[in-house]
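Tutorial handout. Part one gives the primary structure; part two gives the three-dimensional structure as tokens.
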Amino acid sequence: MALERYHKKRNFEVTPEPKGEVRRRANKLAYVIQKHAASRLHYDFRLEWNGVLLSWAVPKGPSLDPSVKRLAMPVEDHPLEYGGFEGVIPEGEYGGGTVMVWDRGTWEPELDVEEGLRKGDLKFTLHGEKLKGSWVLVKTKLGWLLIKHRDEFASKEDVTVEHPPIAATISAELPTQPKMPPCALIILRPMSWNSGK
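Part two.
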């Protein structure tokens, strides 16, 4: 049931996205951000929980500055396999555009996850290649806000500009997707990621 919305939105005979299924694992909880050049460029923020990837679309991407609150719109849960997905979703399909892994790693809840989701105050620690330290997702009337807590990893640096996507890499923490052939990657790299954002 957790992936019903995900499956309904996609035609897996057309899209290269993984169909996937709910899979509970004993591993550390996976975390991934994918840079997604769909109709509007955004960053998909995903946290593994209860066998799926809880997912939020962050239009401007994450900020290391604790004074900056970034809108994070909740979207349907994704299968764990999606955390390793990189490729091009065909035009006309849901989410059509290029998807690349921007950051990946693991995460740890700082408080009870179910209570945090219910109350709209989810605190967690990220152990990513780009994002680290304490963060919070806070629910508001307009959506959720992704906010960096003040710690040694906070910074005024614009992490979305200083750190490009991790091109053609697959997270070892997640079920893997087949890597894209080199010729496909050569086609992807010239694409502009700065489409009005």
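Part three, for discussion. Helices lie at 4-8, 113-119, 159-162, 182-188. Confidence is low (pLDDT under 50) at residues 168-197.
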